[in-house]
Automatic annotation (TrEMBL):
Gene3D superfamilies: Alpha-helical ferredoxin. GO terms for cellular component: plasma membrane. This is Fe-S oxidoreductase. It comes from Syntrophus aciditrophicus (strain SB). Transmembrane segments: none annotated. InterPro entries: 4Fe4S_Fe-S-bd (IPR017896), Cys_rich_dom (IPR004017), HdrC_iron-sulfur_subunit (IPR051460), Helical_ferredxn (IPR009051). Residues 7-79 form the 4Fe-4S ferredoxin-type domain. GO terms for molecular function: iron-sulfur cluster binding; oxidoreductase activity. Residues 145-225, 269-357 form the Cysteine-rich domain.
Length: 386
């Protein structure tokens, strides 16, 4: 297994489980289960025991390995030099499990859906651009930007609303952009983190070839997960394209005066998406959008930025639901944290986070006092507010 030579270096000190001030636990799976086996350190020791033959692949071991949301909090807080490879070690172990042919059924079904239909929803490619109906959105034909929407933005009802809001803003600002529609392949980020390295390489090479064929030089992504794959993983396969998350583009449009927010009175808190924040290093852009809207009072949750609690959708869990949705699940803990701020709006920058947190609000019975909005949706609403 890749990284096998450093899997023994974890001393199980426990720093990886905490926020930087040691006030709270920040590993989503540990926070739910409260067993060290579900913490990064315990997971490392189990992987080592598996590699040395002390334990075997089992349903329980699969649950432990796949409960990791790859949020990167352990990378932020580990005290040792191998910290940058922590998430990569867990992904490499998943690759070994995939190669052995023994994986959780939900993970197997996810790979099957991507392989057959090109998306995890088992829906036809012809429906991939349905979200853009009745909007001034053109097919990509050499425009300055390709707006890469991704599977969740294309097929999920919540994600579609985000794609529509962002496209309206780009159009209003006069940005030259187009979409690939039914020709848009899956970016493969979740395929990679779930351990199917071969399928991920196949998707990356398809995307890169398509981008080259269509002359794509610049990409705006809706989903931070696609942003992560394009910026960090695609270069290995020759995909060297300028990629920006939509929040970064919207900030530039506001600062240049091409988008002029109007007053929108509300108290809001912001949830940092792991793949935009910890993985992507972008904490400022979404907050700049909020602060640019007159009337928005931004209040931070205690756990924010690099200490933000993951919604639990990362690492493929958005599709596999291995972490589940009971009261101790990270998405439900997160909406309770948001409610404690007194905010009426919970702002996100990721379609997976939007869905995870909306579901948690319903489960917590907070529909009448807390509403999830994407940063693009809020900006769009402020601009089009009567």
């Amino acid at each position: 297994m890749k990284y096998a030579d450093i899997a023994h270096r974890c001393f199980r000190c426990g720093y990886c489980k905490f926020t930087s001030d040691y006030e709270n636990f920040n590993c989503p799976s540990y926070r739910k289960y409260r067993f060290d086996t579900f913490a990064p350190g315990g997971r490392m020791w189990l992987i080592r025991a598996w590699l040395t033959g002390e334990i075997e692949n089992s349903e329980r071991f699969q649950e432990i390995l796949y409960s990791c949301a790859t949020c990167g909090s352990c990378v932020e807080h580990c005290a040792f030099t191998f910290r940058e490879d922590l998430v990569n070690i867990f992904i490499a172990a998943r690759e070994e499990m995939v190669n052995s042919g023994r994986i959780p059924p939900a993970v197997r079904d996810y790979f099957k859906a991507i392989s057959i239909h090109g998306n995890p929803y088992n829906l036809p490619a012809a429906e991939r651009a349905a979200w853009a109906e009745n909007l001034p959105v053109e097919s990509y034909n050499g425009q300055e930007y390709l707006f890469y929407v991704g599977c969740v933005g294309s097929y999920d009802e919540r994600g579609r609303k985000m794609a529509q809001a962002v496209s309206r803003l780009l159009s209003k600002a006069g940005v030259s952009f187009g979409i690939l529609g039914e020709q848009e392949p899956c970016d493969g980020n979740e395929v990679r983190v779930l351990g199917e390295a071969g399928l991920f390489q196949f998707l990356a090479e398809i995307n890169i070839a398509l981008f080259r064929e269509r002359g794509v030089k610049k990409i705006i992504t809706l989903d931070p997960h696609a942003f992560n794959a394009f910026t960090k993983d695609y270069p290995e396969f020759g995909g060297d394209i300028e990629v920006r998350h939509y929040s970064q583009v919207l900030v530039d449009l506001i600062e240049s005066g091409k988008l002029k927010p109007k007053a929108f009175a509300a108290k809001a808190t912001f949830h940092d998406a792991c793949y935009l924040g910890r993985h992507g290093g972008e904490y400022k852009a979404p907050r700049k959008i909020l602060r640019a809207i007159p009337g928005i009072e931004l209040v931070e949750m205690d756990q924010n930025r690099e200490n933000a609690l993951c919604c639990g959708g990362g690492g493929g869990n958005f599709f596999t639901d291995i972490l589940g949705g009971d009261a101790d699940s990270p998405n439900r803990i997160r909406v309770r944290q948001a409610r404690e701020t007194g905010a009426e709006l919970l702002i996100v920058s990721c379609p997976q986070c939007a869905k995870m947190l909306e579901d948690a609000i319903k489960a917590e019975g907070l529909e009448n006092c807390l509403t999830v909005m994407d940063a693009g949706e809020l900006l769009d609403a402020s601009i089009h507010e009567d």
